[in-house]
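[Solved] Which block belongs to which protein?

Original post:
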Amino acid sequence: MFPWNVLQNLGWAVVFSIVGAALGIVLVLGASVWLPRLIERFTPNLDEEKEIARGNVAVAEYFGRVVAASILGVSIVVAAAVVAGVIAALY
C-alpha cells in the first residue's frame, strides 16, 4: 500500500510554496515602491531626487543602501514564512 498521506503532504508543501512565493513577490515589489516614499517622508527638508540629480553621491549611497537593506529585510522575512509553511505542510 502506498501512503497517500505522503502525497497529500507534498501537495500541500507545493501549494504553500507557490502561494508563499506569489505573496512574497507582491510584498517585495510593494516594499520597493513604498519604502523610498517612507524614507522621503522621514527627511522632509532634503529632496533626494534633486540631490541625486545634482550629483550628490553621499545622498545617493545613503538612500540606496537604506532602501536596499529594507527590501532585503522584507525578503528574509518572506523567505522564512515560506519555509515555515513548507515545513508545516510536511509534518
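(Second protein starts here: sequence line, then its C-alpha cells.)
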Amino acid sequence: MAQKEVQHELSVDRYTLGLVGPDQEWAGTVADGGVIRTHTPPACWGPMITPEFRGGHEVTRPIRVENAEVGDAIALKIKNVEVTSIATSTGSMIERDGAFGDDPFVDHRCPECGTEWPESIVEGTGEEAIKCAECGANASSFGFEYGYTVAFDDDRTVGLTVDESGAADLANRADDAMALPENSRQHPILLYKPSEMPGTLGHLRPFIGNIGTTPPVEIPDSHNAGDFGQFLIGAEHDWGLEDEDELAERTDGHMDINAVREGAVLVCPVKIDGGGVYVGDMHANQGDGELSLHTTDVSGHAELEVEVIKDLDIDGPLLLPNEEDLPPISKPYSDQELERGRQLAAEYDVDEIEEMGPLQVIGSGATINDATENAFERAGALLDMTEGEVRARCTFTGGVEIGRLPGVVQLTMLAPMDRLEDRGLADLVRAQYDL
C-alpha cells in the first residue's frame, strides 16, 4: 500500500474487482484541498453479469487523502458529473439457479463445471452470451425479469427506450456504446439487448450511486450499506460477517441517493488512516427509492474536491444537497420570512430566532424503518440531541426521504448553527447555501 506521494490533482483509472476495504491497492494520495478526477465504469449490471467479480460494482481503487486520520471526516465537493455512455440497459433482475453460492452478487460459480469466479468470454449477444472460459456454459448469475434499453441524446438530457432492432444494434457495439474505460474488466450489459417498454422518454439527471470512504473490513462494494450488507451476515463466503456489530463497520458508500450529484457536498467518515475515498456506480437517472433495485448504469467522468474535517467522528455520511433538491420545508429562509419571524418574536417575547442551516443525515438498515432509526441515532450523536428533539426538528423543519428500498434514507432538518459550529460543519453549510 505505497503511493504516498501527495498530488494536488489526482486522476484515477484503475478499479477493484468488486471489493472495498483496507486490503485494496491504493490509487495514490491527494492533498487536503486537492482534486480527484475519475472515469468510472458502470456498476450493477455489468459487474453482476461478469462472474470474475466479487461484488456488484466496479469502483475506483481507494485514494488516500493527506492528513485524514481515523476519527476525522472528508468532505467531497462534487464539482462535475458527466456521462460518457451513449446508452445502457437495465430493469428488474432474476437470479440463475446454480450460478452462485450464498449470494448472487458475490460468490459466483459456473453452474456446469463448478469453477468459482470463473473467467468468462463473450459469444454473441443476448442473455446466453457470457460463457465460462473453462467449459463454455452460461456463467452469469443474472438475467432480466423485465428489461429495457435506453439511448441518450448528445447532451445527456433525455433517454428513450428502444425496440428490438435498436437494442440489437447497441448490443453489437456494446463496449463503445457503454464507453467502458480502458482498464474496466466488466462485460457491458448492453449485450443482453432487452427491449421492453419501447418509446418511453425519460428525464436524465446523472449522479453517483456508490461514493465514500473505505471501511476497516473487506466487503463487497455493493454491500457497503445497511440493507445490502444484511446478505453478508451468516454468509459462508470469504466476506461473510457474524452479526450486525460487524456490519456496523460499514461506511455506507453505496447509497443510490439521486441528490449525490454535481454541486452537492458529501461528508464521509474516516475509518482507516487516509480515508480511502472511492468512486463508482454513476447513474444517468433514478427515481427516489430505486424501485427496480437497479437503474441506468453508465460510464462517466467525475471531479471531486476534498477537504479534511478534523475530529468530526461520524459513523455514516452527511449530505449537503443542492438547494433545489432540499424539501421545501428545509430550504434556507428568505429575507421576507426572517423579517416575519422577527415580528413574531417581538410579539411573543422570544429573545432571538435560531440561526439554522440545512443538513441531511444518511441512515441505512435492513428496512426503511431500520434505516430511519439509524439516521435518528446518527443525527442525535452528531448534534447532541435526544431522539425526541431529532424527531421534532425533522417534523417541523425537515423530513425523511427514501434513497433506496429496502433501507437507505436521507433525514433532513434545519440544524441549529451553533451545533454545526461545535462540530466544524458550519463553514461548509454556510458556503453551500450562501448563508
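Accepted answer:
You had them paired correctly. Confirming on the second one: The domain at 6-80+209-314 is CATH 2.60.120.580 (Jelly Rolls).
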